[in-house]
Write a structure and sequence with these properties.
alpha/beta, Exonuclease domain-containing protein
């Protein structure tokens, strides 16, 4: 059994990254896991710069609130330990995410960017499956969802003749996957916008002076 995993993060009061959302797809089965992890402290314990970075991630990246969460980190770690014991390997996109998974499991972890030159998200095959937390948002496509990304990575691996079960002929409705929702009086229509993010680069790879340094790798 091979697993495809994606993670989203916040920063804690120490300035260290903490998992916020987990999405998992089994490569050779039609099975998925999704969890949102509640915070370990109140926002009043966060420094202003950390709070600002977390707020940016909420507004412009994953759309999750600091206080969102349904499964404790301890329970997630136990569940992941049980699942990973039965896995041959774990596929994940990104060096930092691979390093984090290597710390919590002895299972072989493959960084898809290094091993297979995995493309950025907006170049992955589109798969219209989102978690409930993102599905109920007025503009779910505005945000990244780990369940959606795990399924799209699985679909991409399938396209490289890696065994799996998800297939689709759908095309991604927008590219790149950052959007702006018009106000409630404009029939909730979507329009693509150029997102000059504060994570170091805009969508077209140009440098941004508002570099947020260590969380840059979170926003891919």
């Amino acid at each position: 059994m091979d697993l495809v995993i994606d993670l989203e993060f916040f920063k804690d009061y120490k300035g260290q990254v903490m998992p916020k959302e987990l999405g998992l797809a089994v490569l050779d089965l039609d099975a998925t896991v999704h969890s949102i992890i509640p915070p370990t402290c109140n926002t009043r314990f966060l420094k202003k710069d950390i709070l600002r970075e977390n707020n940016w991630l909420t507004l412009h990246h994953h759309g999750l609130d600091w206080y969102d969460g349904d499964v404790s980190l301890k329970k997630i770690q136990k569940t992941m330990h049980d699942i990973c014991r039965k896995a041959n390997k774990i596929d994940v996109r990104g060096e930092e995410k691979a390093k984090l998974l290597n710390k919590i499991t002895t299972c072989k972890v493959i960084n898809l960017e290094e091993a297979y030159e995995c493309p950025p998200r907006y170049k992955l095959p589109y798969y219209a499956r989102y978690c409930m937390q993102h599905s109920i948002k007025r503009c779910p496509l505005q945000y990244t969802c780990t369940l959606n990304i795990a399924c799209e990575l699985k679909l991409w691996l399938n396209s490289r003749d890696v065994k799996g079960t998800i297939t689709t002929t759908a095309e991604r409705p927008f590219s790149p996957p950052y959007y702006h929702c018009k106000n409630e009086f404009s029939e909730h229509s979507l329009e693509v916008v150029k997102n000059e993010s504060s994570c170091g680069e805009d969508l077209f790879g140009r440098s941004n002076s508002n570099d947020m340094g260590t969380i840059m790798w979170l926003c891919v």
